[in-house]
Amino acid sequence: MNYRHAYHAGNHADVLKHAVLAHALVHMGRKDKAYCVVDAHAGLGVYDLDGVEAGKTLEWQGGVGRLIDGAGKMLALEDAAADVLLEPWRQAVAAVNGGGAIMRYPGSPEVAARLSRAQDRMVFNELHPADFETLSAQYAGDGRVRVTREEAGVAVKANLPPAERRGLVLIDPPYERVDDAERALATLKQGYKRFATGCFMLWYPVTGDGLSDRLVEAAAEAGMARMLVAEILVRPVTINGGLAGSGLIIVNPLWPLAEELPVLVPALAERLKAGDPAWRVEWLTGE
């Protein structure tokens, strides 16, 4: 396991993934009953944008960097309604920077920890040994959090169904191994079988190899009810052209997320664009 998300933290794919995650957790918190978050590929809680890894790729400049000004302060989206929907993510980013210039970025564990409540529970799973140790240290004082080091499929199976009977599962592998897409879809299907009422989010990259199309098609045929896809392209897709965009397959999207994403996603596509942007939000199965 060699993948380190620190090289990619805060890029356009992270902005989409974490903005949707943050808003979904807001909806989870509108009921008093506790919930559980299972993050199958957690990475780190917080990333330094001026660190060695981020400095080598500078991918964050095409992501969170497009949402801040020259002084490192957050910019509003042009669409006021979309800007309101982005606020939970914006608050998480501001919090890890102490309200100052944006030089740190919250990963999915930190987004979950910031937005979850005292009664909620989180399981952060990370396979990379060094990142696991860092993640464990970061949340050692948070009694709501348990950090594990398992294969993603094992971690999801072991934690579902949650005792709370309410929960959100995030699956976002690096797609570096040739079978990562197959493994991710198997993890999603297995998780849904164990916890059919839970909200699941499966992230995928959009490149020129057709992986995203194959994964979305396979998910649509997997027999899961109420499945939504939200996707952004920041530039046209070309063969061997790298990461042109990304998407989320969302099973059991929390109300009213399905009505909100057609507002938020195009506004993000416009702000994050590096060429001609494109987006889609549509039901794969269900409504």
Topology record:
Layout: H1 12-28, E1 36-39, E2 46-48, H2 52-57, H3 80-96, E3 104-106, H4 108-115, E4 121-125, H5 129-138, E5 145-148, H6 152-159, E6 167-171, H7 180-194, E7 199-206, H8 211-220, E8 227-233, E9 245-251, H9 257-272, E10 278-285
Parallel strand pairs: 1-4, 1-6, 4-5, 6-7
Antiparallel strand pairs: 2-3, 7-9, 8-9, 8-10
Helix pairs in contact: 1-3, 1-4, 1-9, 3-4, 3-9, 6-7
Q: Segments where pLDDT lies below 50 for 5+ residues?
A: none
Q: Quickly count the helices.
A: 9
Q: Count the strands?
A: 10
How many domains? The number is 1
Element order, helices and strands?
HEEHHEHEHEHEHEHEEHE
The backbone outline, from C-alpha atoms, is globular
In short:
By secondary structure, the protein is α/β, with parallel strands linked by helices. The protein is 37% helix and 19% strand. The mean pLDDT is 96.
3D architecture notes:
The chain has 287 residues and is α/β, with parallel strands linked by helices. The chain has a single domain, classed as Vaccinia Virus protein VP39 (Rossmann fold, 3-Layer(aba) Sandwich), CATH 3.40.50. It contains nine helices and ten strands. The strands form two sheets. The protein has an eight-stranded mixed beta sheet, sandwiched between helices. A two-stranded antiparallel ribbon has the order 2-3. Helix 1 runs antiparallel to helix 9, helix 3 packs across helix 4 and helix 6 runs parallel beside helix 7. The model has no long low-confidence stretch (mean pLDDT 96).
